[in-house]
Amino acid sequence: MKTIMKYKYLATAVLLSGLTLFSSCKDEFAEINSNPSAVSTPNVRYLFAQCITTFQPADYSAWFYGYKAMPSWAQMSVLSGGNTSKMNLNASTTGCGYAIQNTLLYTNEIRYQISLMSDEDKSKYEYIQYLCNPMCVMLGLVDTDMYGSRQYSEAMAIRYGGTMTPKYDTQEELFELWLKELDETINYINAHPKGNQLGNQDFIYNDDLGKWAKFANSLKLKIAARLWNVNKTRALQIVNEAAKNPAGFASVAGVGGDDFIINKGKTNNNFNNSLPGMNIGRDAVIEFMKKNRDPRLFSLFMKNDYNSLVIQAFFDQNREKFIPSYIMDHVDYEVIDGKKTFTGWKAPGEPWVRYYGVPCQNDINVKDEYDEYFDHKDEAFFLYNGTVKVSYSPISSTNTFAIKGNFEYEFPDKPGATPVKTDQHAWYGFYFSAGEVNLLLAEFKLLGADLPKSAQEYMTEGVRASMKVYDAVAEKNELPYYKSGYTNDKFDQPINFSDNDIEESLKLDAYQLNGTQTENLEKVYIQQMIHYMMLPMDMFSTSRRSGVPMKNSTILPREDFDPALGDSYIIPRRFAVSEPLQSDPLYQITIDAYKAQGFTYSGEMKDAPATLAKERVWYDQNAPEYGAGPKIN
């Protein structure tokens, strides 16, 4: 964590010493406009609502920096202008490593306020503090994944007599501490199953404690998955115990189900900043999803700009030679009076024919043979409106509308057409789901866990639930083209698929565990990584611990970024850390934490990718190399 963030960590805790009352309503969650000095006791119900509001594992800076690097390193997407030979140097710490701080701040205040209550009030409200635990654990995992040791057990506690210099807990200590906190939540709810104080202030599960217990119990699987390569016995023990716990696992997908879905109010858009230069799809990933009729494609990526109106405009301006061949391969047209007229799409038809990715090899964006993807001569991807160039993208970028809300999308059309834009909408985000749970259970069943269902049953239900939650959230977010296509284009098809469509997709071989143990695990890990595309930290952690995508795979292969260098082109395994200023009161504590993990930290690291590939966080130290596939025994 950068020094500036450490000061923010401490300053926020000091600020809390003057905290009096935070309040929220279901729609806006705004603070009550009253004199703080006139109120002595905060309402823990409102504190909890604010605690949820601060829950943010993926803010603007994370998406702008680290969340672009990780999917490209894992070969699930490609940097916006194409991967370059310097893409392995993008090891910025900005935006990652401190997701926990504000949620932990409110959690500690809730615990403190409950400790001051009378026995009568405590019996009513004490359950609220236990609901904070799984949120803190989830955010803590996000922070430790790329940095290892974190300040947690002593952090955000100045107001309550804690230290100004909180220690760093090791990753191994954190995992055991978080398992203990999850058990505390589960055990309390199992003994006190009814909540009756929060109501709408719990705008995740609406005071349904059974769902909170499922969430906490299911989170254990994420910890077990990270432990597999360092302590297989402990990992299986965690899974087996969780499977027998009466709390159960998250199993009902979608809004109102067991999935951890947040909508923070009709004016909340997740974060205010726009996100320029989002990653674009990798061709192998998009083609894999199209081949296997995976409707998550429509949420993860945007349709390209080459609808029938744009293609017709290329024909009319005699620029059809600049329509990429991979698009023209799916275009039907007739020649009428010497002019080409668009007549329809070939199989697989709209909307599938509007999604294309690019190769992931480095520096092909300046090579003539890849101009259909990158147009480095600036002669292809535009039409003329008079003398003005109007640009169109033939490839699919990460769907920004699935990441944040309340901004407009302008539908592509021929030059000079009256712009048509979408309305603005509030944003729903899902961070944990029954899909993820079942895919983790499929993995552990294949690895020998004592679970009641077959790996195939977990796999099928995992993919089904993943597809359903993507569908449910996309509908709530009213993504462009979702349920309603571009009305000016008679050939445009809205994104709309049924449960029956999902069931037909699930019959395809990509979702069948019909091979060797390694082949079956590969299929499960691929589905996990697709599910995690909107949660890049989890996606990258899955790639590291699984060795998937695998080299020479017949399903979804990992390729050399530089064919000439092969494995000599090194991809980092974690983000860089910075040496704090010597005036920083946390200086020695931070340096000691770096040294204990074997991290290089001083100055600008020489040969940074090699250093960051060798100096790994604890749970990654015995993991397979990129592309090597899973370590089973």
Detailed description of the structure:
There is one protein chain. This protein is mainly alpha-helical and 633 residues long. Helix content is 40%, strand content 5%. The chain has 22 helices and eight strands. The protein has helices at 3-16, 44-54, 60-64, 66-73, 101-115, 119-125, 127-147, 171-191, 209-227, 232-244, 283-291, 297-300, 308-316, 325-328, 371-374, 434-446, 455-477, 499-505, 517-531, 536-546, 587-597, 608-614; strands at residues 77-78, 260-263, 280-281, 331-336, 339-345, 382-385, 388-391, 428-432. The strands form four sheets. The chain has a two-stranded antiparallel sheet. The chain has a two-stranded antiparallel ribbon with strand order 2-8. It has a two-stranded antiparallel sheet with strand order 4-5. A hairpin with a 2-residue loop joins strand 6 (382-385) and strand 7 (388-391). Helix 4 packs parallel to helix 20 and helix 16 (434-446) packs antiparallel against helix 19 (517-531). It is globular and about 90 Å long.
Question: What average pLDDT do the residues reach?
Answer: 91
Residue stretches low in confidence (pLDDT < 50, at least 5 long) are 1-38
**H/E topology pattern:** HHHHEHHHHHHEEHHHHEEHEEEHHHHHHH
What topology, given as strand order, has the largest sheet? 1-3
Question: End-to-end distance, in Å?
Answer: 34 Å
Cα radius of gyration in angstroms: 25 Å
The shape is globular
